[in-house]
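thought: user wants a sequence for this fold. calling inverse folding tool.
action: design(structure=
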């Protein structure tokens, strides 16, 4: 529950503020400034990501063994 709250805070509150700050800093400093408030939170969910990735690989292997085309799924995952 706390991870979800942190993720929502970062994505819905802090990220828009960070974008405004980075735009203003880029204009004032004359170079590209990026502020990422979401990526640091991803380390908290490394175990969940690993389990989800493992499940996706297993499901793709089973689908391929059953003769199903994994192309649409890979396209949905932005994998070429």
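)
observation: tool returned 80 residues.
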């Amino acid at each position: 529950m706390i991870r979800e709250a942190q993720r929502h805070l970062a994505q819905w509150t802090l990220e828009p503020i960070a974008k405004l700050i980075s735009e203003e800093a880029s204009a004032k400093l004359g170079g590209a400034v990026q502020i990422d408030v979401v990526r640091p939170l991803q380390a908290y969910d490394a175990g969940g990501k690993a389990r989800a990735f493992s499940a996706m690989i297993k499901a793709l292997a089973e689908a391929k063994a059953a003769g199903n085309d994994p192309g649409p799924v890979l396209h949905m995952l932005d994998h070429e």
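thought: summarizing for user.
answer: Here is the designed sequence. The helical segments are 2-29, 46-65, 71-76.
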